[in-house]
Design brief:
This protein has 234 residues and is α/β, with parallel strands linked by helices. Helix content is 20%, strand content 35%. A hairpin with a 6-residue loop joins β11 and β12. The longest helix is centred in the middle third of the chain and has 14 residues.
């Protein structure tokens, strides 16, 4: 783990480096991408500048670059960023990101990060989204679907990667926060990840965005997982 301190409630096991939030670098380098690039790309003009927050090993970054977007990819893990190519990379926690006066056509906060258990961290995440989006730009946020914390255990197959993904449990740890345990099983390797997640109703989710100065324009997918917001105009 290269001397990095794992955050309370976050852990990971399996081959290779594990980041402070329990993500395994090799695992995320193996995982295939789903519809995320198409969903994001459909909301942007060609060649738009994109700030991707929490890029990991570039699972979404690389397709966005391939679609012609000018991507700045942010992650706090140097090992993750070593796997990213074709994009400008910045190593930083999202909530303390300092890019000076730069602004982007689009800011992307994926991977259900908005559901982080700590309210102060969520305020920081959304504050970063608001700070770095242009006045005429957009913020794209991925949120959890219905039953994410209650329809357990469940699993799905990532056939492209050759992996079975299981969400094993979501155990309450207080103040509306669950400790979620996930497993990723390949023929030649197995990883686990434990992280903390706060279930948010649509009303709570929209209220947090409003507090950050973001106004929801529309939900981009029928399941409501991807949301398009814009900065509130004062």
């Amino acid at each position: 783990m290269s001397g990095q301190l794992v955050r309370e409630g976050y852990a990971g096991t399996g081959p290779g480096s594990i980041t402070p939030d329990g993500c395994a670098v090799e695992l995320y380098a193996r995982m295939s991408v789903g519809s995320e690039p198409e969903v994001i790309g459909s909301a942007l003009r060609p060649g738009a500048s994109v700030l991707e927050l929490g890029c990991g090993a570039g699972r979404v970054t690389h397709p966005l670059v391939g679609l012609g977007f000018d991507v700045t990819a942010v992650d706090e893990s140097a090992q993750m960023l070593e796997r990213v190519s074709g994009a400008r990379t910045v190593r930083s926690p999202i909530e303390t990101l300092d890019l000076g006066e730069e602004r982007f056509d689009a800011v992307v906060l994926g991977s259900f990060l908005v559901h982080v258990g700590d309210h102060r961290v969520r305020e920081g995440l959304l504050g970063t989204c608001r700070r770095y989006v242009k006045d005429a730009g957009v913020v794209l946020i991925q949120r959890e679907g219905a039953g994410y914390h209650s329809d357990l255990p469940r699993e799905r197959e990532d056939r492209a990667a050759g992996c079975t993904i299981r969400i094993v449990s979501a155990v309450p740890v207080g103040d509306g926060v669950d400790e979620v345990r996930a497993e990723y099983v390949f023929e030649d390797a197995r990883w686990t990840q434990t992280f903390r997640s706060r279930e948010l109703s649509v009303e709570q989710f929209e209220a947090y965005l409003a507090e950050a100065g973001l106004v929801i324009d529309r939900y981009l997918t029928p399941d409501g997982l991807w949301v398009l917001a814009s900065p509130e105009q004062l």
